[in-house]
Amino acid sequence: MFSSTSLAALTLLSLAASPVAGLVAAPLEARFVGTKYLFIFGDSYTATGFNPSGNKPSASNPIGNPNLPGSTFSGGWDWPGYLVTSFNTSQTLLYNYAVGGATVDSNLVAPPGNGIKSFVEQTAQWKSDAASKPSYAPWTSENALAGAFFGINDILQSHWRDADTPLSKMVDRYFEQFATLYAAGVRNFFLVTVPPMDKVPQITGQNAQGRSKIMTNVNSWNTQLAARLATFKEKNTGVTAVVIESAGPFNTAIANPKSYGAPDATCLNRNGKSCLWWDNLHPGEAIHKLLAAEIAKAWKDTFF
């Protein structure tokens, strides 16, 4: 856990959290005491540049490597970094396998470049170190939480290539990865839905037909994810599972940009602070902190 001195050094913009909407299993009995382990999988909306072969997460650097806030696509902090600094209640160590450009399965939807590890490959990496080597991450079923945030690249890469988006097959592969985590002992899960992409600067410039097609796939993806997580919880003993609706944080900031340090809802700035958007696809720090607050609220009195 960060000391008051180190937390003071992490001067962050104070943002209000929006209500959590989603599917929650029976709550855990009590907040854990001691070290917690957070395993995260995703794409550029999630990545902090973690190298599993580098320095492991520790009290001095809960993301392990690189130094806080990591190598992100936000101009600074992103939601995983906020979770283990601003919202942690005890020492929380983050093993973040997310990679910019990742899709669920490269064989279903190819990523935008070579060598980008998909959810399938990220899970395999996790299984080879964190799942099988207690000395690497001595987690238990009680003190470990796994989260995933996928779908943006899957939907957009299909769209740019004018190809069908294999939503059902992608969701199948998604939950095969959750099944792998479960088989290794993970019992606490969350997933983040795809945000309202029609409000992202890159997409607002598309024609009405293109925006409509993207949002049809976004809505279908999010609906399928929620339904499958409910089924996953019902079929697997001891699972606590939460759907994190990303639309709330995004819509909150977009509706009130000046409250979050931005002159309007569409400007871009690489500093990640003076606009809501880092570039025309990626949100800056404000939206990330709202999303982190949403996740922390969903696990209030347990992990955060």
Automatic annotation (TrEMBL):
Pfam families xref list: Lipase_GDSL
Signal peptide: 1-22
Keyword vocabulary terms for this entry: Hydrolase, Signal
Domain of life: Eukaryota
GO terms of molecular function: hydrolase activity, acting on ester bonds
InterPro entries (alphabetical): GDSL, GDSL_Est/Lipase, SGNH_hydro_sf
Name of the featured protein: Carbohydrate esterase family 16 protein
Annotated organism of origin: Schizothecium vesticola
The organism's taxonomic lineage, starting at the top: Eukaryota, Fungi, Dikarya, Ascomycota, Pezizomycotina
